[in-house]
Amino acid sequence: MRSPGTSSGSSPKDSFWSFLNFGARISSNAARFMAHELCFDTSVVFGDSYTKQMARRRGTWLLLGLRRYRDAPGVWPDTLASVSQYVSPEAFCDPASGDAFVYTRNGDSFRLHSKGRNRIDEGGRHGYVRPLKKVEDDIWIWPPQVPEEERKRTDRKPG
């Protein structure tokens, strides 16, 4: 008569080792699954970098349209809608927020940024703000931001 849980040609000892092998495979697969979820969560890691990249790319398209507009009359447009003849319609949709990009004209210059994933216009700021205890996630497009150490280097007076 056979022991429960054993096949016809195996002993209970073999059955025990095959059970341990099965348990090791399950724990190994579970560890692989957890590592994938923690390290390669596409909605957080790859999704965030992809939307930032697409926002910057579409922002670049808008910059080209703004420059083409300025070449004709010599002034920057009052709104982004004015450059619609120079840029494809998909460039106006910010992939990070789903809204339009934020365009502000300041005299002979302008500012352009994305609202980011939280869909709140924080004036182009990005990063953790300690006094407010919140993370601001705007994606800055124009004017280019100069790193702090480079700004200090260029602010020094010669001599």
Q: How many individual helices?
A: 3
Into which percent range does the helicity of residues fall?
Answer: 40-55%
- When the domains are counted, the total is 1
* Cα radius of gyration in angstroms: 28 Å
What's the total number of strands?
5
Helix and strand sequence = HHEEEEEH
Choose one word for the global shape. elongated
Kindly report how far apart the N and C termini lie. 100 Å
**Which secondary-structure class do the elements indicate?**
alpha+beta
Walk me through this protein's architecture.
- The protein is of the alpha+beta class.
- It has one domain.
- It has helices at residues 12-39, 42-71, 148-155, and strands at 102-106, 109-114, 126-129, 134-137, 139-142.
- It has a three-stranded antiparallel β-sheet, with helices on one face. It has a two-stranded antiparallel sheet with strand order 3-4.
- A hairpin with a 4-residue loop joins strand 3 (126-129) and strand 4 (134-137).
- The mean pLDDT is 79.
List keywords for this structure.
159 residues, 42% helix, 14% strand, alpha+beta, two-stranded antiparallel ribbon, three-stranded antiparallel sheet
Short description:
The chain is α+β, with helices and mostly antiparallel strands.
Break the fold down into its secondary structure elements and pairings:
Blueprint: H1 12-39, H2 42-71, E1 102-106, E2 109-114, E3 126-129, E4 134-137, E5 139-142, H3 148-155
